[in-house]
Amino acid sequence: ELNGAVTIVVLGASGDLAKKKTYPALFGLFKNGFLPSNTHIVGYARSKMSQEEYLDRVTQYIKLQNDEDKAKLQQFKNINTYQSGQYDQAESWIQLNNLLEANEMERHLGSPKDKNRVFYMALPPSVFIPVAQGIKQHVYHAEGINRLVVEKPFGRDTESSNELGDALGALFKEEDIYRIDHYLGKEMVKNVMNLRFANIFFAHAWDRQFIDTVQITFKEPFGTEGRGGYFDDFGIIRDVMQNHLLQVLTLIAMERPISTDSEAIRDEKVKVLKCIQPIKMNDALLGQYVSNQEGKPGYLDDDSLKNKASQTPTFAALALFIENERWEGVPFVLKAGKALNEAKVEVRIQFKNVPGNLYDDTARNELVIRIQPKESVYMKFNSKQPGLSYQTIQTDLDLSYHDRYTDLAIPDAYESLILDVLRNDHSNFVRDDELEASWKIFTPLLHAIDDPKQKLPLVTYPYGSRGPQELNEFIEKFGYDRSNTT
Ligand code: BG6
């Protein structure tokens, strides 16, 4: 429905996100022929730079795999233009609009219907509203298609998120807004619905009768080095849990949508989110990393951190409960931390013990969805020890993508999501009511953490460790049998 023509305006084109994610993704789509044939990309930012400097920046993070890529990069450069301007001045926006108009004419897009514009805001939240206003007033083309792509943070609690939502909602229709949560573009996250709803045996064992606990884990092996300024304002819960991990939880827990239509999917997500109780202080374990023996710095040692007595958690384990017929009493434990021993994001669905205990040492079934690295799905199950023994052993049914799909290059999450924007598919974007429901779950806990009078306990863990020692006890308390882990 874009009629083969679109102009993608990357706002914040000289920023980190644009360089690391947006442009490499646009190039990936371009080289594989997924951008409409008549596409132009306009980078917009405050920095003054020549077209050449801009192109250098744009290509800095693009990895070329072969000579063909080199040639494609040249073509890609030809569809890119840069324009500098302010975020809060009408005349800057008018100039941008003039540039777009002239460029559209050159590309023979004279008819208003062909003026399709995607505005990608790779911007800090402080300028979200002025930019959206500037665009709406001066760069929006009422007769064409206008889409606004927004990146988190969407506020810092229910109230601020609602304020931002109201301000954006006054300017753009909900159907034209695409709130990115890049976890929704990851291959294994996109796979959750297929796994659940295309396999009859999962469909029938997917509830409190069979499942004991669900663990969703995010581990990063590096600290906030150099990003302490941003991070300290947000903390690990706002940074990855209220959004990325909660989205994964939602896909695991929601009911079957009536179809794969984006609104049907998002309706179900909202419903299940509304059944989740706000997290209680007792169901939270908060931690912060400290230096280790090898001399890796602690969180408070980071030069970019202003508050040297910061209580901001860099680690959290939170138990969430869904009060509905399917899930009552099943803890969903979200765990996330910076500066841990490894990079790993995965979901572990641990089933109940087999009743009757016919065999000794029967381990629990456990379905593991490894989101990264090395995407895989495996089910731990019990089988006879091969040979003359009758002993039961634990083994697994394993679908490892790197073994099974050897020729497959898994696209980056951003490629998948930008393509969805072009195709007008909202399934993997966060709807306004979904955002509100998700903040409600976290806001009371976040306010308690932010309130110095409440002094919530904060445990420490050394840089590069598995997390705070208290974690084992915490996950056992919420039903996870650790002897099962391999
Ligand atoms: C971002 C967070 O949203 O997600 C970062 O702000 C985090 O702190 C990142 O590192 C993780 O994304 P990925 O795709 O690298 O797992």
TrEMBL record:
Where do the Glucose-6-phosphate dehydrogenase C-terminal domain residues begin and end? 193-480
Assigned EC number = 1.1.1.49
Pfam families for this protein: G6PD_C (PF02781), G6PD_N (PF00479)
Give the signal peptide range: none
The record's GO CC annotations read: cytosol
> Does the record carry Oxidoreductase as a key word?
yes
Q: InterPro entries from the entry?
A: G6P_DH, G6P_DH_AS, G6P_DH_C, G6P_DH_NAD-bd, NAD(P)-bd_dom_sf
One annotated GO molecular function is: glucose-6-phosphate dehydrogenase activity
Could you tell me the keywords of this UniProt record?
A: Carbohydrate metabolism, Glucose metabolism, NADP, Oxidoreductase
Xref: NCBIfam families = zwf (TIGR00871)
* Task of the protein: Catalyzes the rate-limiting step of the oxidative pentose-phosphate pathway, which represents a route for the dissimilation of carbohydrates besides glycolysis.
Protein name per UniProt: Glucose-6-phosphate 1-dehydrogenase
